[in-house]
């Protein structure tokens, strides 16, 4: 899978993925869950979708704050797989 160029990433972040930001070669989104258990449930839902896609985000859980980080490590940056999973995560959280 080919790396996206900066214009493609910028277009996604200013469009459907406006809740996400870019940190180097990674897409990042932070979500505040209503409660710790609801946050854990959101992580479980994301994990199911990620497992099905065989594309796994880095997830940091800090009480009710969830941080999702997406990058295609095998390609060394952001690919269409990351944009697709980011969109799915948006639909779940």
TrEMBL record:
Keywords: Lyase. InterPro entries: PCD_sf, Pterin_deHydtase. It catalyses: (4aS,6R)-4a-hydroxy-L-erythro-5,6,7,8-tetrahydrobiopterin = (6R)-L-erythro-6,7-dihydrobiopterin + H2O. Its EC number is 4.2.1.96. It comes from the Bacteria. GO terms for molecular function: 4-alpha-hydroxytetrahydrobiopterin dehydratase activity. The keyword Lyase applies. It holds the Pfam family Pterin_4a. GO terms for biological process: tetrahydrobiopterin biosynthetic process. Belongs to the pterin-4-alpha-carbinolamine dehydratase family. PANTHER family: PTERIN-4-ALPHA-CARBINOLAMINE DEHYDRATASE. This is Putative pterin-4-alpha-carbinolamine dehydratase.
């Amino acid at each position: 899978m080919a790396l996206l160029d900066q214009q493609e990433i910028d277009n996604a972040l200013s469009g459907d993925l406006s809740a996400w930001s870019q940190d180097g070669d990674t897409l990042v989104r932070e979500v505040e869950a209503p409660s710790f258990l609801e946050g854990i449930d959101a992580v479980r839902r994301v994990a199911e979708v990620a497992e099905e896609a065989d594309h796994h985000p880095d997830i940091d859980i800090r009480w009710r704050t969830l941080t999702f980080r997406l990058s295609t490590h095998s390609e060394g940056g952001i690919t269409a797989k990351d944009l697709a999973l980011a969109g799915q995560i948006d639909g779940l959280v």
